[in-house]
Amino acid sequence: MDNAQELLLLEQIRAGDQAGFATLMRQHAPKVVGLATRLIGDRSEAEDLAQEAFLRLHRALPGFRGDSSIGTWLYRTTTRLAIDHLRREKLKRKLFFFRQNEDDPDPIETVSDPRSNPARDLHTRQAMRRLSQALRKLSARQRAVFVLRHHEGLPLQEIAALLGLETGTVKAHLHRAVTTLRLELADVYEEAP
Amino acid sequence: MKPDCLNERDLILLHYGECPDGATPAAAADHLAACAACRARQEQLALELARIPAAVDPEPAVATRIAARVNERLGRRSALRWLPVLGGAAVAAAALIITFAVRSPQPELVQIQPPTTANSTAMNLEEDLPDIDFLEDLDVIEALELLRQIEGV
Ligand SMILES: [Zn+2]
């Protein structure tokens, strides 16, 4: 959907076209859920977060002037909601002295994906699990910067604008995140074929 | 390592195609071409980062599921907005509509209150975004609230 089509759709939604908002959601939902899953590491919580992002979008539509695309707006909102979510999770763990059990199944794996192959490579599954554990060692911002740069391919300057941070700060977060992940995943790399 | 060798941070930035801090991109490239040690470190970094797995993309059905759930919540919201002005019988009818909406096989067709400009003309899209620093304050408030609950104050 290009910008002109999107603006037209927005006009229709504002005029009361109820199916238009559903079209908009179906268009953006896979990307939003994918991003949220990578950011928080839990598919079902990522879906809740995506719902919240779309509810906020619906509330914000009357004020939408079209100076940024819906996709960019959703990206920014999802990232900020994810950072908020990660911080709250960390806080809860700190306050209740709750530690994630190392043997807990990885939340990404527990969500069944109809396309997944049951005999998926064991090494990949273990690597996913280790990555999930390693990502938990990062601060919410470090994790967001890493995911946005490494998985989503966003330039650091865009990430800085997205998170309202200086580019230097974003660089520091990326450095810290990569260093921590390399350290945490060192033995995974050693075992890799 | 020679004094002009690239540090870890610059190697990471170069890996992601970003401008390094300690040298111009051209100077960094010249150094990498001339220094086998830095090239080896750069290759090792690239190898390790390439092995980081990515989460599986969501299945296409996720879009329909999310749209249905959001529509359901929007439908519930607009129903709740009218509850105070409805009589008892109308409340029961609204409850029925909500129940029906929840069970509807085509939830995107649920009647939704369209977004209106009436009460939000001055609303800037930015204002609806959670502000990160504000959220930090919220975390502190939440922490105090949780502590209060734990201690039963
Ligand atoms: Zn060197």
3D structure, described in words:
The complex is a heterodimer of chains A (193) and B (153). Chain A is mostly helical and 193 residues long. Chain A has two domains: 1-100, Rna Polymerase Sigma Factor, Chain: A (Orthogonal Bundle); 111-193, Arc Repressor Mutant, subunit A. Chain A is 73% helix and 0% strand. In chain A, helix 7 (140-151) packs across helix 9. The model of chain A is unreliable at 98-114 (pLDDT under 50). Chain B is mostly helical. Among the domains of chain B are: 8-50, no CATH class; 61-102. Chain B is 59% helix and 0% strand. Chain B has helices at residues 8-15, 25-34, 36-50, 61-82, 88-103, 132-151. Chain B is elongated, with a radius of gyration of 28 Å. Chain B starts with 7 loop residues before the first helix and ends with a helix. Residues 105-111 and 117-127 of chain B have low confidence and may be disordered. Classes of the chains: A mainly alpha (193), B mainly alpha (153). Chains A and B meet through helix 2, helix 3, helix 4, helix 6 and helix 7 of A and helix 1, helix 3, helix 4 and helix 6 of B. Bound molecules: zinc ion. Zinc ion is lined by residues 2, 5, 31, 35, 37-38 of chain B. The site of zinc ion (ZN) has 6 residues of chain B, from helix 3.
